[in-house]
Write a structure and sequence with these properties.
This protein is an alpha/beta fold. Helix content is 31%, strand content 26%. The strands form five sheets. Strands 1, 2, 3, 4, 5, 6 and 17 form a seven-stranded mixed β-sheet that branches. Helix 6 (183-194) links the parallel strand 9 and strand 10. The termini are far apart.
Amino acid sequence: MEYDVVVIGAGPGGYVAAIRAAQLGLKTAIVERYNTLGGTCLNVGCIPSKAMLDSSEHYHNAAHTFNTHGIELSNLKVNLPQMVARKNDVVKQNVDGIAFLMKKNKIAVHHGHGSFADAHTLSIAKADGSSESITAKYFIVATGSKPASVPGVNIDKQRIITSTEALNLPEVPKHMVVIGGGVIGMEMGSVYARLGTKITVIEFTDSLIPTMDAAMGKELQKVLAKLGFDFHFGHKVTGVASKGKQTVVTFEDLKSGEVKEIKADYTLVSVGRRPYTDHLGLDKAGLATDERGRIPVNEHLQTAQPHIFAIGDVVKGAMLAHKAEEEGVFVAEYIAGQKPHINYLLIPNVVYTWPEVASVGHTEAELKAQGIPFKAGSFPFKASGRARASMDTDGLVKVYAHQQTDEILGVHMIGPRVADMIAEAVVAMEFRASAEDIARMSHAHPTYTEVFREACLAATGNRAIHM
Protein backbone atom coordinates (compact mmCIF):
# COMPACT_ATOMS: atom_id res chain seq x y z
CA MET A 1 0.00 0.00 0.00
CA GLU A 2 1.35 3.44 -0.87
CA TYR A 3 0.88 6.63 1.11
CA ASP A 4 1.92 10.23 0.75
CA VAL A 5 3.29 10.26 4.31
CA VAL A 6 4.14 7.45 6.70
CA VAL A 7 4.95 8.38 10.29
CA ILE A 8 6.99 5.89 12.33
CA GLY A 9 6.06 6.26 15.99
CA ALA A 10 2.80 7.46 17.56
CA GLY A 11 4.09 9.66 20.36
CA PRO A 12 3.32 13.40 20.58
CA GLY A 13 5.60 14.23 17.65
CA GLY A 14 4.36 11.38 15.50
CA TYR A 15 0.62 11.57 16.01
CA VAL A 16 0.63 15.38 15.72
CA ALA A 17 2.62 15.13 12.48
CA ALA A 18 0.13 12.59 11.15
CA ILE A 19 -2.88 14.74 12.05
CA ARG A 20 -1.41 17.87 10.48
CA ALA A 21 -0.43 15.96 7.32
CA ALA A 22 -3.96 14.58 7.04
CA GLN A 23 -5.43 18.05 7.57
CA LEU A 24 -3.34 19.24 4.63
CA GLY A 25 -4.86 16.60 2.36
CA LEU A 26 -2.01 14.08 2.40
CA LYS A 27 -2.81 10.35 2.46
CA THR A 28 -1.27 9.45 5.80
CA ALA A 29 -0.43 6.35 7.84
CA ILE A 30 1.15 5.90 11.24
CA VAL A 31 3.13 2.88 12.42
CA GLU A 32 3.29 2.06 16.14
CA ARG A 33 4.98 -0.98 17.66
CA TYR A 34 2.83 -0.98 20.84
CA ASN A 35 -0.87 -1.74 21.12
CA THR A 36 -1.78 1.77 22.22
CA LEU A 37 -1.00 5.11 20.63
CA GLY A 38 0.55 8.11 22.36
CA GLY A 39 4.09 6.87 22.87
CA THR A 40 6.09 7.32 26.05
CA CYS A 41 4.43 10.63 26.90
CA LEU A 42 0.86 9.42 27.13
CA ASN A 43 1.52 5.86 28.31
CA VAL A 44 4.47 5.95 30.74
CA GLY A 45 5.73 9.55 30.78
CA CYS A 46 4.19 13.02 30.84
CA ILE A 47 0.55 12.12 31.47
CA PRO A 48 0.77 9.31 34.06
CA SER A 49 3.51 11.07 36.00
CA LYS A 50 1.39 14.22 36.25
CA ALA A 51 -1.57 12.15 37.42
CA MET A 52 0.59 10.67 40.19
CA LEU A 53 2.07 14.07 41.03
CA ASP A 54 -1.40 15.56 41.43
CA SER A 55 -2.64 12.67 43.57
CA SER A 56 0.39 12.79 45.83
CA GLU A 57 0.07 16.57 46.19
CA HIS A 58 -3.56 16.19 47.30
CA TYR A 59 -2.48 13.70 49.95
CA HIS A 60 0.41 15.88 51.10
CA ASN A 61 -1.85 18.90 51.48
CA ALA A 62 -4.44 16.85 53.34
CA ALA A 63 -1.73 15.69 55.74
CA HIS A 64 0.09 19.00 56.20
CA THR A 65 -2.01 22.05 55.34
CA PHE A 66 -5.69 21.18 55.65
CA ASN A 67 -5.77 21.89 59.40
CA THR A 68 -4.50 25.41 58.74
CA HIS A 69 -7.29 25.86 56.20
CA GLY A 70 -9.82 24.77 58.82
CA ILE A 71 -10.37 21.32 57.35
CA GLU A 72 -10.04 18.49 59.86
CA LEU A 73 -9.53 14.89 58.80
CA SER A 74 -8.98 11.66 60.69
CA ASN A 75 -7.52 8.28 59.73
CA LEU A 76 -5.82 9.71 56.66
CA LYS A 77 -3.94 7.07 54.65
CA VAL A 78 -2.55 6.37 51.22
CA ASN A 79 -4.40 3.92 49.00
CA LEU A 80 -1.62 3.37 46.45
CA PRO A 81 -3.51 0.79 44.33
CA GLN A 82 -6.36 3.27 43.87
CA MET A 83 -3.87 6.04 43.07
CA VAL A 84 -2.32 3.84 40.39
CA ALA A 85 -5.77 2.81 39.11
CA ARG A 86 -6.78 6.45 38.69
CA LYS A 87 -3.53 7.11 36.86
CA ASN A 88 -4.25 4.20 34.53
CA ASP A 89 -7.73 5.54 33.83
CA VAL A 90 -6.30 8.95 32.94
CA VAL A 91 -3.88 7.24 30.55
CA LYS A 92 -6.68 5.20 28.95
CA GLN A 93 -8.80 8.28 28.34
CA ASN A 94 -5.90 10.01 26.63
CA VAL A 95 -4.80 7.11 24.42
CA ASP A 96 -8.41 6.41 23.48
CA GLY A 97 -8.65 10.05 22.47
CA ILE A 98 -5.66 9.68 20.14
CA ALA A 99 -7.22 6.59 18.53
CA PHE A 100 -10.38 8.63 17.93
CA LEU A 101 -8.36 11.43 16.31
CA MET A 102 -6.75 8.92 13.94
CA LYS A 103 -10.20 7.78 12.80
CA LYS A 104 -11.52 11.32 12.60
CA ASN A 105 -8.66 12.36 10.32
CA LYS A 106 -8.78 9.13 8.28
CA ILE A 107 -5.23 8.15 9.21
CA ALA A 108 -4.38 4.48 8.67
CA VAL A 109 -2.90 2.89 11.80
CA HIS A 110 -0.48 -0.04 11.43
CA HIS A 111 0.53 -1.80 14.65
CA GLY A 112 3.91 -3.51 14.61
CA HIS A 113 7.63 -2.77 14.55
CA GLY A 114 8.50 -0.75 11.46
CA SER A 115 11.91 -0.93 9.84
CA PHE A 116 13.17 0.25 6.47
CA ALA A 117 13.54 -2.39 3.77
CA ASP A 118 14.87 0.34 1.50
CA ALA A 119 14.62 4.12 1.28
CA HIS A 120 10.98 4.01 0.10
CA THR A 121 9.65 0.82 1.74
CA LEU A 122 8.81 0.10 5.35
CA SER A 123 8.46 -3.46 6.59
CA ILE A 124 6.13 -3.92 9.57
CA ALA A 125 6.63 -6.96 11.82
CA LYS A 126 3.41 -7.70 13.70
CA ALA A 127 2.94 -9.28 17.09
CA ASP A 128 1.37 -12.43 15.58
CA GLY A 129 4.50 -13.11 13.54
CA SER A 130 3.12 -11.86 10.25
CA SER A 131 4.44 -8.85 8.37
CA GLU A 132 3.44 -6.35 5.73
CA SER A 133 5.18 -3.73 3.61
CA ILE A 134 4.06 -0.20 2.84
CA THR A 135 5.61 2.52 0.69
CA ALA A 136 5.45 6.28 0.85
CA LYS A 137 6.63 9.43 -0.86
CA TYR A 138 7.74 10.77 2.53
CA PHE A 139 8.63 9.22 5.87
CA ILE A 140 8.79 10.88 9.29
CA VAL A 141 10.85 9.06 11.94
CA ALA A 142 9.36 9.87 15.34
CA THR A 143 10.33 6.87 17.45
CA GLY A 144 11.17 8.82 20.60
CA SER A 145 13.55 7.71 23.34
CA LYS A 146 14.19 5.16 26.08
CA PRO A 147 15.54 5.64 29.62
CA ALA A 148 19.34 5.77 29.71
CA SER A 149 21.36 3.92 32.33
CA VAL A 150 24.61 4.21 34.22
CA PRO A 151 27.53 2.14 32.90
CA GLY A 152 27.67 -1.13 34.78
CA VAL A 153 24.19 -0.76 36.31
CA ASN A 154 21.69 -3.47 35.38
CA ILE A 155 18.10 -2.21 35.51
CA ASP A 156 16.14 -5.30 36.62
CA LYS A 157 12.77 -3.47 36.67
CA GLN A 158 12.04 -4.99 40.07
CA ARG A 159 14.12 -3.07 42.60
CA ILE A 160 16.47 -1.22 40.25
CA ILE A 161 13.94 0.68 38.20
CA THR A 162 13.26 3.46 35.69
CA SER A 163 10.44 5.99 35.76
CA THR A 164 8.25 3.47 33.90
CA GLU A 165 8.31 1.00 36.79
CA ALA A 166 8.11 3.81 39.36
CA LEU A 167 4.60 4.55 38.08
CA ASN A 168 3.39 1.10 39.17
CA LEU A 169 5.07 0.25 42.46
CA PRO A 170 3.07 -2.14 44.66
CA GLU A 171 3.93 -0.23 47.84
CA VAL A 172 5.09 3.11 49.14
CA PRO A 173 8.83 2.60 49.73
CA LYS A 174 10.40 3.57 53.03
CA HIS A 175 13.55 4.70 51.24
CA MET A 176 14.35 5.30 47.57
CA VAL A 177 17.66 6.30 46.00
CA VAL A 178 17.31 8.50 42.92
CA ILE A 179 20.31 8.48 40.59
CA GLY A 180 20.27 11.79 38.74
CA GLY A 181 19.11 15.26 39.78
CA GLY A 182 17.27 16.08 36.56
CA VAL A 183 13.62 16.56 35.73
CA ILE A 184 12.44 12.94 35.77
CA GLY A 185 14.15 12.05 39.04
CA MET A 186 12.85 15.12 40.86
CA GLU A 187 9.30 14.60 39.65
CA MET A 188 9.10 10.90 40.56
CA GLY A 189 11.04 11.52 43.76
CA SER A 190 8.47 14.17 44.68
CA VAL A 191 5.60 11.73 44.19
CA TYR A 192 6.95 9.31 46.77
CA ALA A 193 8.40 11.90 49.13
CA ARG A 194 4.91 13.37 49.51
CA LEU A 195 3.62 9.90 50.37
CA GLY A 196 6.24 9.44 53.09
CA THR A 197 9.27 7.97 51.31
CA LYS A 198 12.75 9.13 52.25
CA ILE A 199 14.50 10.20 49.04
CA THR A 200 18.28 10.24 48.59
CA VAL A 201 19.53 11.92 45.41
CA ILE A 202 22.94 11.14 43.92
CA GLU A 203 23.93 13.68 41.25
CA PHE A 204 27.13 13.80 39.19
CA THR A 205 27.11 17.61 38.83
CA ASP A 206 26.99 20.20 41.61
CA SER A 207 23.30 21.15 41.35
CA LEU A 208 19.78 19.99 40.59
CA ILE A 209 18.21 20.44 37.13
CA PRO A 210 21.65 21.46 35.80
CA THR A 211 20.37 22.36 32.32
CA MET A 212 18.20 25.16 33.73
CA ASP A 213 19.18 28.51 35.27
CA ALA A 214 21.33 28.00 38.38
CA ALA A 215 18.95 30.00 40.59
CA MET A 216 16.16 27.52 39.85
CA GLY A 217 18.21 24.51 40.94
CA LYS A 218 19.21 26.18 44.20
CA GLU A 219 15.63 27.16 45.02
CA LEU A 220 14.27 23.72 44.11
CA GLN A 221 16.85 22.10 46.39
CA LYS A 222 15.61 24.22 49.32
CA VAL A 223 12.02 23.22 48.66
CA LEU A 224 12.74 19.51 48.26
CA ALA A 225 14.87 19.50 51.40
CA LYS A 226 11.70 20.46 53.28
CA LEU A 227 10.13 17.25 51.94
CA GLY A 228 13.01 15.26 53.41
CA PHE A 229 15.23 14.86 50.35
CA ASP A 230 18.93 14.20 51.00
CA PHE A 231 21.42 15.26 48.33
CA HIS A 232 24.86 14.01 47.34
CA PHE A 233 26.24 16.34 44.66
CA GLY A 234 29.50 15.75 42.84
CA HIS A 235 29.19 12.00 43.23
CA LYS A 236 29.50 9.23 40.66
CA VAL A 237 27.53 5.98 40.99
CA THR A 238 29.86 3.01 40.53
CA GLY A 239 27.42 0.17 41.06
CA VAL A 240 23.95 -0.91 42.12
CA ALA A 241 23.14 -4.39 43.39
CA SER A 242 19.75 -5.90 44.18
CA LYS A 243 19.75 -8.03 47.33
CA GLY A 244 16.36 -9.43 48.24
CA LYS A 245 14.06 -6.57 49.04
CA GLN A 246 16.87 -4.03 49.09
CA THR A 247 19.25 -2.35 46.72
CA VAL A 248 22.80 -1.40 47.57
CA VAL A 249 24.25 1.63 45.80
CA THR A 250 27.97 2.36 45.78
CA PHE A 251 29.10 5.82 44.77
CA GLU A 252 32.26 7.89 44.77
CA ASP A 253 32.91 11.45 45.90
CA LEU A 254 34.50 13.08 42.83
CA LYS A 255 36.56 15.48 44.96
CA SER A 256 37.87 13.25 47.73
CA GLY A 257 37.67 9.89 46.00
CA GLU A 258 35.88 8.44 49.02
CA VAL A 259 33.68 5.46 48.15
CA LYS A 260 30.31 5.33 49.93
CA GLU A 261 27.46 2.85 50.17
CA ILE A 262 23.75 3.29 50.80
CA LYS A 263 20.86 0.82 51.06
CA ALA A 264 17.28 1.46 49.99
CA ASP A 265 14.09 -0.37 49.07
CA TYR A 266 14.30 0.84 45.46
CA THR A 267 16.84 2.61 43.27
CA LEU A 268 15.41 4.83 40.54
CA VAL A 269 17.81 5.33 37.62
CA SER A 270 16.94 8.69 36.07
CA VAL A 271 20.02 9.89 34.22
CA GLY A 272 18.20 11.03 31.12
CA ARG A 273 17.03 9.29 27.98
CA ARG A 274 18.61 8.01 24.78
CA PRO A 275 17.14 8.14 21.26
CA TYR A 276 15.28 5.00 20.25
CA THR A 277 16.74 4.35 16.82
CA ASP A 278 17.43 0.64 17.32
CA HIS A 279 16.34 -1.90 14.71
CA LEU A 280 14.87 0.69 12.35
CA GLY A 281 16.88 -0.51 9.36
CA LEU A 282 18.30 2.98 8.92
CA ASP A 283 21.30 1.59 7.03
CA LYS A 284 19.00 0.05 4.44
CA ALA A 285 17.53 3.51 3.87
CA GLY A 286 20.99 5.02 3.48
CA LEU A 287 20.99 6.64 6.92
CA ALA A 288 23.30 6.57 9.93
CA THR A 289 23.21 7.92 13.49
CA ASP A 290 25.68 10.11 15.34
CA GLU A 291 27.71 9.17 18.42
CA ARG A 292 24.62 9.53 20.65
CA GLY A 293 22.31 7.51 18.44
CA ARG A 294 20.57 10.58 17.00
CA ILE A 295 19.68 11.01 13.35
CA PRO A 296 21.40 14.04 11.77
CA VAL A 297 19.01 16.46 10.05
CA ASN A 298 19.19 19.83 8.30
CA GLU A 299 17.24 23.01 9.13
CA HIS A 300 14.14 21.48 7.51
CA LEU A 301 14.49 18.31 9.62
CA GLN A 302 15.42 16.33 6.52
CA THR A 303 17.86 13.44 6.89
CA ALA A 304 20.54 12.50 4.35
CA GLN A 305 17.62 11.19 2.32
CA PRO A 306 15.56 14.34 1.59
CA HIS A 307 12.24 12.45 1.57
CA ILE A 308 12.90 11.03 5.06
CA PHE A 309 12.47 13.41 7.99
CA ALA A 310 13.22 12.90 11.70
CA ILE A 311 11.70 14.73 14.67
CA GLY A 312 11.54 14.75 18.47
CA ASP A 313 13.87 12.78 20.69
CA VAL A 314 15.72 11.11 17.79
CA VAL A 315 17.24 14.44 16.68
CA LYS A 316 19.29 17.09 18.46
CA GLY A 317 17.65 19.35 21.01
CA ALA A 318 15.70 19.09 24.24
CA MET A 319 13.73 15.88 24.72
CA LEU A 320 10.36 17.54 25.25
CA ALA A 321 6.94 16.41 24.06
CA HIS A 322 5.95 19.90 22.96
CA LYS A 323 9.20 20.34 21.04
CA ALA A 324 8.38 17.12 19.16
CA GLU A 325 4.87 18.40 18.47
CA GLU A 326 6.21 21.64 17.01
CA GLU A 327 8.56 19.66 14.80
CA GLY A 328 5.76 17.34 13.71
CA VAL A 329 3.65 20.27 12.52
CA PHE A 330 6.73 21.86 10.93
CA VAL A 331 7.53 18.78 8.83
CA ALA A 332 3.94 18.18 7.72
CA GLU A 333 3.62 21.79 6.58
CA TYR A 334 7.02 21.73 4.87
CA ILE A 335 6.06 18.60 2.93
CA ALA A 336 2.84 20.36 1.89
CA GLY A 337 4.86 23.24 0.46
CA GLN A 338 4.40 25.75 3.24
CA LYS A 339 7.17 27.74 4.97
CA PRO A 340 6.90 26.93 8.69
CA HIS A 341 9.26 28.20 11.36
CA ILE A 342 10.40 27.10 14.84
CA ASN A 343 12.28 29.29 17.29
CA TYR A 344 13.97 26.68 19.48
CA LEU A 345 15.07 29.30 22.00
CA LEU A 346 11.43 29.94 22.83
CA ILE A 347 10.41 26.37 23.57
CA PRO A 348 9.73 26.38 27.33
CA ASN A 349 11.04 23.81 29.78
CA VAL A 350 9.05 22.73 32.83
CA VAL A 351 9.60 20.62 35.95
CA TYR A 352 6.31 19.49 37.53
CA THR A 353 7.42 19.34 41.14
CA TRP A 354 5.54 21.56 43.61
CA PRO A 355 6.33 24.32 43.37
CA GLU A 356 6.76 23.94 39.64
CA VAL A 357 9.80 25.17 37.73
CA ALA A 358 9.54 26.73 34.26
CA SER A 359 11.92 28.60 31.99
CA VAL A 360 12.25 30.01 28.50
CA GLY A 361 15.08 31.79 26.70
CA HIS A 362 18.65 32.25 27.88
CA THR A 363 20.05 31.38 31.29
CA GLU A 364 22.42 33.72 33.09
CA ALA A 365 25.36 31.45 32.28
CA GLU A 366 24.49 31.50 28.57
CA LEU A 367 24.25 35.28 28.47
CA LYS A 368 27.64 35.62 30.16
CA ALA A 369 29.23 33.04 27.87
CA GLN A 370 27.95 34.89 24.79
CA GLY A 371 28.99 38.30 26.11
CA ILE A 372 25.46 39.69 25.90
CA PRO A 373 25.00 42.70 28.21
CA PHE A 374 21.99 42.13 30.45
CA LYS A 375 20.21 43.30 33.56
CA ALA A 376 18.21 41.11 35.92
CA GLY A 377 15.12 41.52 38.03
CA SER A 378 13.52 39.05 40.42
CA PHE A 379 10.51 38.93 42.70
CA PRO A 380 9.61 36.30 45.35
CA PHE A 381 6.24 34.60 45.69
CA LYS A 382 6.33 35.23 49.43
CA ALA A 383 5.52 38.87 48.62
CA SER A 384 2.44 37.88 46.59
CA GLY A 385 -0.97 38.23 48.19
CA ARG A 386 -2.36 35.42 46.03
CA ALA A 387 0.47 33.10 47.01
CA ARG A 388 -0.06 33.86 50.70
CA ALA A 389 -3.77 33.11 50.32
CA SER A 390 -3.04 29.67 48.84
CA MET A 391 -0.05 28.97 51.14
CA ASP A 392 2.26 28.64 48.13
CA THR A 393 4.96 31.16 49.03
CA ASP A 394 8.08 29.24 47.98
CA GLY A 395 9.87 30.39 44.85
CA LEU A 396 10.52 33.41 42.68
CA VAL A 397 10.46 34.76 39.12
CA LYS A 398 13.69 35.96 37.54
CA VAL A 399 13.80 38.04 34.34
CA TYR A 400 16.84 38.83 32.19
CA ALA A 401 16.58 41.79 29.80
CA HIS A 402 19.09 43.34 27.40
CA GLN A 403 21.07 46.11 29.07
CA GLN A 404 20.55 48.58 26.21
CA THR A 405 17.30 47.59 24.48
CA ASP A 406 15.40 46.13 27.47
CA GLU A 407 14.26 43.21 25.29
CA ILE A 408 13.43 40.17 27.44
CA LEU A 409 16.14 37.53 26.94
CA GLY A 410 15.15 34.89 29.47
CA VAL A 411 12.50 34.18 32.09
CA HIS A 412 12.95 31.62 34.87
CA MET A 413 10.26 30.76 37.41
CA ILE A 414 9.82 28.50 40.39
CA GLY A 415 6.50 28.74 42.15
CA PRO A 416 2.81 27.83 42.01
CA ARG A 417 1.35 27.24 38.54
CA VAL A 418 4.43 28.54 36.73
CA ALA A 419 4.01 25.73 34.19
CA ASP A 420 1.03 27.77 32.98
CA MET A 421 2.51 31.19 33.74
CA ILE A 422 5.52 30.63 31.48
CA ALA A 423 3.23 30.93 28.45
CA GLU A 424 2.98 34.69 29.01
CA ALA A 425 6.76 34.93 28.87
CA VAL A 426 6.83 32.86 25.66
CA VAL A 427 4.29 35.17 24.02
CA ALA A 428 6.20 38.24 25.17
CA MET A 429 9.50 36.95 23.83
CA GLU A 430 7.96 35.72 20.57
CA PHE A 431 6.92 39.32 19.89
CA ARG A 432 10.24 40.64 21.25
CA ALA A 433 8.65 42.51 24.13
CA SER A 434 10.71 44.54 26.57
CA ALA A 435 10.56 44.20 30.34
CA GLU A 436 8.94 47.64 30.30
CA ASP A 437 6.17 46.32 28.04
CA ILE A 438 5.19 43.67 30.60
CA ALA A 439 5.60 46.13 33.47
CA ARG A 440 3.03 48.45 31.88
CA MET A 441 0.43 45.73 31.17
CA SER A 442 -2.38 45.30 33.68
CA HIS A 443 -2.30 41.97 35.48
CA ALA A 444 -5.39 40.89 37.42
CA HIS A 445 -5.14 41.14 41.19
CA PRO A 446 -4.68 38.93 43.06
CA THR A 447 -2.97 36.45 40.73
CA TYR A 448 0.34 34.62 40.58
CA THR A 449 1.09 36.36 37.27
CA GLU A 450 1.61 39.64 39.12
CA VAL A 451 4.94 38.18 40.26
CA PHE A 452 6.12 38.13 36.63
CA ARG A 453 5.13 41.76 36.25
CA GLU A 454 6.93 42.71 39.46
CA ALA A 455 10.08 40.91 38.27
CA CYS A 456 9.93 42.92 35.04
CA LEU A 457 9.53 46.12 37.08
CA ALA A 458 12.59 45.12 39.07
CA ALA A 459 14.53 44.53 35.83
CA THR A 460 13.72 48.03 34.56
CA GLY A 461 15.40 49.84 37.44
CA ASN A 462 14.38 48.53 40.85
CA ARG A 463 10.76 49.60 40.39
CA ALA A 464 9.03 46.60 41.99
CA ILE A 465 6.03 47.91 43.89
CA HIS A 466 5.51 45.29 46.58
CA MET A 467 9.10 44.86 47.76
